[in-house]
Design goal:
two-stranded antiparallel sheet; 36% helix; 17% strand; 6-stranded mixed β-sheet; 4 helices
């Protein structure tokens, strides 16, 4: 004769099932946040690569007004629009500039910083709060993730809270290494594409005279 479950046994099974469901629900939130954060980093990185590619082709940075048209996606996984901040002098030419006014601070006091930054791309992250940019002083504050009471960006609202912005920046030196070249012996720096097609004119503008090496791009 087959014996069925007793009420005590059924209760134990239900308790175990409840515990498993609770454990799964507890893990789901952190896993979802981690997945979105990873997706957000990919979105920001893709935007940076698109801007860099544009710079290689044109010898200049795109203005803010062209940002959404150039990047693969201008919204992060949470639906926020990415921020793009740059030194506007680089929208006319990168290779003619030796420095920029944009600084990235690595702590809230800006004791440690990277200078001569060309541009930054920012996602506000999971808290929907843009915390990084201090536009008035041309600074981007990027303290370690988890730093408490941070909000330097007043473009949306001031709400100092735990820092979670996803940020990537590119320096002028990094762009120079990929874009700029010396047009032959004349010392006139220009983007590679312009140098290849018009180096002789540029060297004449630099008053190289009749130097036969002047028009030969490396």
């Amino acid at each position: 004769m087959k014996r069925g479950f007793t009420l005590i046994e059924l209760a134990i099974v239900l308790v175990i099932i409840g515990l498993l469901i609770g454990l799964g629900a507890g893990l789901l939130g952190p896993l979802t946040r981690r997945s979105k954060y990873s997706e957000g980093k990919t979105t920001v990185n893709s935007a940076v690569e698109a801007i860099t590619g544009y710079s290689i082709r044109t010898g200049r940075l795109p203005p803010e007004s062209d940002f959404q048209r150039i990047v693969p996606s201008y919204k992060d996984p949470w639906g926020n629009e990415l921020q793009y901040f740059l030194d506007n002098d680089l929208t006319s030419s990168i290779c003619s500039q030796n420095e920029t006014d944009l600084i990235v601070c690595h702590d809230t006091s800006c004791a440690n910083y990277t200078e001569n930054v060309a541009f930054v791309v920012i996602s506000p992250g999971d808290n929907y709060n843009y915390q990084t940019l201090d536009r008035g002083n041309n600074r981007a504050f990027v303290p370690p993730i988890g730093t408490e009471n941070v909000d330097f960006d007043g473009s949306d609202f001031i709400r100092a809270e735990t820092y979670d912005d996803i940020v990537r920046w590119v320096t002028l030196d990094q762009l120079w290494a990929r874009i700029c070249t010396n047009c032959g012996a004349c010392g006139f720096y220009e983007s590679r594409s312009v140098c290849d097609s018009n180096c002789s004119v540029n060297c004449q503008q630099a008053q190289c005279g009749n130097n036969p090496n002047c028009w030969r791009c490396p």
